[in-house]
């Protein structure tokens, strides 16, 4: 649940993060079934907060850290990620979104981890320039 956790928790606790980067994200808790083995009743999601990533991101839009996410074009979650991208565009929320060949696989994530590391590197370099 890495991508979903990044988007939802990153938005709900935006003040704790310098940036958010996710790969192949589930974008709503309702879609989590089939992606995690645990019973949904054990997830302990606070239902006082939105469960859809887009709703969380919109609720905290004024204080979100830089955001990027990507998804493989053969991933079963590609349409969900495209819908999130479209929703963020419609809400005027700045973000970077990319699609690459690949599915919901470790091979895809291993290949695109470098994209996240470069993203975080740019954030840290910018913060260093501002504070230095």
* Strand element count: 3
- Summing up helix and strand content along with how strands pair, one would put the structural category as alpha/beta
Note poorly predicted spans: none
Anisotropy-based shape: globular
CA-to-CA gap between the ends? 36 Å
Helix percentage range:
40-55%
* CATH class group: Alpha Beta
Give the ordered list of helices and strands: HEHEHEH
Can you describe what's shown?
The protein is α/β, with parallel strands linked by helices and 132 residues long. It has a single domain, classed as Rossmann fold. The chain is 44% helix and 11% strand. The chain is built from 4 helices and 3 strands. It has helices at 2-12, 53-59, 78-91, 106-131; strands at 20-23, 67-72, 96-100. A 3-stranded parallel sheet has the order 1-2-3, with helices on both faces. Helix 1 runs parallel beside helix 2. The longest helix has 26 residues, at 106-131. The radius of gyration is 15 Å and the shape is globular. It starts with a helix and ends with a helix.
Salient structural properties:
132 residues; alpha/beta; three-stranded parallel sheet; single chain; Rossmann fold
SSE blueprint and pairings:
Elements: H1 2-12, E1 20-23, H2 53-59, E2 67-72, H3 78-91, E3 96-100, H4 106-131
Parallel strand pairs: 1-2, 2-3
